[in-house]
Amino acid sequence: EIGRVVLCKFLYLLIYSLLYITEGVMALSDIPEKPESDEFDKFSEFVSKRITELRIRKNVSEYQMSLDIGQNRTYIQNVSSRRSMPSLHALFKICNYFCITPVEFFDNALDTPEIYTEAKKELCQLSPNDIEILLPVIKRFSHNNIENKRGVEE
What we know:
154 residues; 8 helices; 71% helix
């Protein structure tokens, strides 16, 4: 739920930023200065936790990741500790670093977004006939996964 709210807020700010940058349509005073404090805190907490989660899964240090994305050596440490927030450009670099899209970054329902991205890439290489052959298998696994989750919840 928080991931979807965060994504909506991110897209809202992105659209406003693009309007301002590309067309000069909006006056600087028309762009919201900052979301409500509580919302901004939730957003920054989500971003910092998500980056930390993905970084640990990739088994890379904050220092190394900072350098890998072309930032100073303490950049990711500052983001992870919520002393700073990544710019839109930096967020796209971070997503690229983890081989995920921004949508996948903000979808906290995806425990391992990089696996979904890789699966999508591979599926895109298949012919429609091959996908039709795989679809029943995927649906069967999906159905079994849903049944297993129900059994655990009960």
